[in-house]
Amino acid sequence: MNTDLKGEICEGIAIVKLMKLGYIISKPVNKCKYDLIADDGNRLLRIQVKKGTVKENFIKFNTSSVNTKTNKSIQYTNEEIDYFLIINLETETVYVIHVNECSKGEQRFRFTKPKNNQQKKILFADNYLLENYNMQK
Predict the structure, then answer these.
(1) Prediction pTM value
(2) Of 36, 66, 42, whose CA–CA distance to 130 is shortest?
(3) Contact, 111 vs 76, CB < 8 A?
(4) Which of 9, 45, 133, 137 is least buried, going by the fewest C-beta atoms within 10 A?
(5) Residue 117 has pLDDT above 80, yes or no
(6) What span, in angstroms and rounded, lies between the C-alpha atoms of 44 and 40?
(7) Pick the CATH number of 3-132 from 3.40.1350.10, 2.160.20.10, 3.90.550.10, 3.40.50.12500
């Protein structure tokens, strides 16, 4: 399966999950930084959909895009998007995080506690499940 098809499938999963939660979904006609608009009746939320890469204890995703002309990595900002929706293609699980909460370059959500019991700067996947996350912040 090629990268474009995986991205389209991830967007489809995100759209269905958001609609089931009561959001009205729109897609931009022009090329822009966000993939979807989620309308909750009060606000329009700009959503960037990312396919997560699953490892043994975590799922990770890129918090930047790459300029194809310069091959430079460009960090997403809150002037361009509001939230990332991260899709686990294996399980169709959807995670969400506000762009301001993300690390530069890459963000990880852990499935299990670290062996060294580190707690600071650890984001646990269960806290970012779409169905449990409040996007009204």
Answers:
(1) 0.91
(2) 36
(3) no
(4) 137
(5) no
(6) 7
(7) 3.40.1350.10
